[in-house]
Amino acid sequence: MDILMPQLGESVTEGTLGKWLVAPGEAVKKYQPIAEVITDKVNAEIPAPADGVMANLVISEGTTVKVGTLIAVMNAAGAAAAAVAQAGPQAAQAAPGGARPAALTGAAVASLDRPKGEAASRYSPAVLKLAQEHGLDLSRIPGTGLGGRITRKDVEGYIASGAAAQDCVGGMVAAQAAAPAAPLTEPVAPARPAYTPAPAPQPLAADQVIPVDAVRRRIAEKMLQSKHEAPHAWTMMPVDVTGLVKLKEQMGEEFKRREGVSLSFVPFFIKAVVESLKEFPIINSQWAGDSIIMKKEINISVAVATETSLAVPVIKNADRLSISGLNHAVADLAARARAGKLTLDDISGGTFTVNNTGYFGSFMSAPIINHPQAAILSFEAITKTPVVLENDAIAIRSMMNICMSLDHRILDGLVCGRFLQAVKARLQGYGPGTVTLY
User: Fold this and answer.
1) What CATH number is associated with residue 111?
2) Would 300 disulfide with which of 237, 318, 379, 426, CB 3.0-4.6 Å?
C-alpha cells in the first residue's frame, strides 16, 4: 500500500515531512499517527489508512514534497489488502514526481486513483471519516472544492439531502471513476510577477546564524505571496469602548464561575465583525482572477501567537455563536495552537481574519492579509484617553483603534469605511444591559 503526501488544505500544493512516528517493520493500527507534516502554520499528523506493517519510509524528515508524492509504503492487513488487490489497473496512474503507482493515499484517504487521464481523487480525513460513518460511495458526490475535490461540506450536504440513505457500501470506501469534476469554484491565484531576489547577506564572524525551520519558511512564503498578489491598502478608525470595558468588569467574575474560562474582549470583537460582514458581504470574499467569490459562510480566522510562530485557526460559522460560544471557541483554539494540537480542519476554510494586536500593547498596526481573503482587521490596545465630547466637555474614556488592511482589487475605501463604521457602532453599543452573553 503506497502512502502519498495528502492534500494539506484547499490551496496547499506541498508539505514538509517533519517527523516520522513509526519505523520500518513496525505494526500500525488504522488511524494511528504515523508522521507529522508541517502545513502553513501548524503541524498535522498523518494517520495510517489501514491496519498493517510499515515496509519503507521513502521521504526523509525535513523534506518538502508535492501533494501526491510517495512518502511511505506499508503492507496492509485484512480488508485493506483486499481493496488494494481489487484496485488492479485502476491504480496504475503514477503519482507526481515519478513516484510508483498509487493504491491508497495517506492521511486516512482510502481512495483509488481515477483512470489514466483524469484527475486523481483526494479525500481529506474529515471527508473519509464521514463517508465511512454513513457508508457513502464518494464517487456519487459532486465536489465543489479545488478541481472538483470533495469537501466536508459537500458530504454533509449530501447526507442532509437524504441521498445518503440509498448509498451504503459498507467497510472501506472505494473511489471509483466519477463524473467529470465540478466547475472550479475556489480562487485561482494569478501568476506572480517575475522578480530577482536580492543577494542574501553574509554573516560576520561574531554573528549568530539561526537556520530557518520549515514552519518559518512556510510563513515567509505565504506572507510574500500575499504582498505580491494582493495590492494592500490600509485604514484606521478610533472606537470608544468604555461601555464594553464596564460590561467586562461587571460580568467577568460571574462568567468565569459559570463557564470555567475567563471572559475576554475578543468574542465581542468577533461578534461585531460577523454582524457587520452580514451587512457588507463583499468584505467576506476572495479574488478569483476573472471573478470575485463572495463566501456564504462566515468563518473567522483568529491570529494566535505561539513561542516560535503564528497560527491562524478558524472558528467555523462564527455568526451562529453567542458571545459565550465565541469565547469558548477562541480559548480552545488558542490553547491547542500553543500546544501544537491543531488539526488541518482547524486551520482551513477561513473567510476573514481578526487580529488582537492590542494584547501586546500595540495601538496601531498594518497587518498582512491572510491570502486569499479580502481583508484583515486588527483590534489595538484599549487605553484611557482624554476625549472631547459632543458638548465640548472633556472626559476620560476607554479608547481603541481598529486597523484594516484590504485587497484593493476587491475592496475600495468607501465600502471599507462603512464596514468599519458598522463595527465601531456595534462595539460602542456594547455595555451593561445592552448585550446578552449566552
Assistant:
1) 2.40.50.100
2) 318
Q: What pLDDT score was predicted for residue 180?
A: 46
Number of domains in the chain: 2
Active site residue 228: no
**What HEC string does the chain produce?**
CEEECCCCCCCCCEEEEEEECCCCCCEECCCCEEEEEECCCCEEEEECCCCEEEEEECCCCCCEEECCCEEEEEEECCHHHHHHHHHHHHHCCECHHHCCECCCCCCCCCCCCCCCCCCCCCCCHHHHHHHHHHCCCHHHCCCCCHHHCCCHHHHHHHHHCCHHHHCCCCCCCCCCCCCCCCCCCCCCCCCCCCCCCCCCCCCCCCCCCCCCCHHHHHHHHHHHHHHHHCCEEEEEEEEECHHHHHHHHHHHHHHHHHHCCCCCCHHHHHHHHHHHHHHCHHHCEEECCCCEEECCCCCEEECEECCCCEECCEECCHHHCCHHHHHHHHHHHHHHHHCCCCCCHHHCCCCEEEECHHHHCCCCCCCCCCCCECEEEEECCCEEEEEECCCCCEEEEEEEEEEEEEECCCCCHHHHHHHHHHHHHHHHHCCCCCCCCC
Active site residue 232: no
CATH of the domain at 332: 3.30.559.10
Q: Annotated catalytic residue: which of 134, 232, 328, 408?
A: 408
Q: Which of 141, 166, 191 is the last residue of a domain?
A: 166
Query: Is residue 128 scored above 80 in pLDDT?
Result: no
Same domain for 310 and 408, yes or no, is yes
* pTM to 2 decimal places: 0.61
Establish if 78 belongs to a structural domain.
yes
Domain containing 109 equals 2-166
Tens of pLDDT, residues 285-319: 999 988 999 999 999 999 998 777 788 999 999 99
